[in-house]
Amino acid sequence: MDDLQATYERLGPDASEAQIEKTAQDLERRNYMPPLILDVQDFYHLTKKRMIEEYHRVMALPSQSAELKAVVGIEDPEEVKTKHLTVLLHQYELLRGLRVGDGDAWATVNELYEDD
Fold this sequence. Notes:
Elements: H1 2-9, H2 17-29, H3 48-60, H4 66-69, H5 77-99, H6 103-113
């Protein structure tokens, strides 16, 4: 988990407030919601600071946490934490790409939400 924490702490700088808001509006219009394992409040507006806070929040959850136990298909609470934080990191990197107009990131979202 030390590697995962280091990856969270090495995240690049946030986009501008305007880029974050425009991307959030674009994703809301598409009804985009990433496939996360645990709930993350206001995903569209996540920042590096909030990502690091989420990392520490999840790592501090006790093994008997109702939030961890509610996950279907994964019984080990530590595995739930690791999978959630890994998936969240991947989805946040996609979100960061969307915010700066990365064509590959938008192609991924468009493929999932528009081309079907």
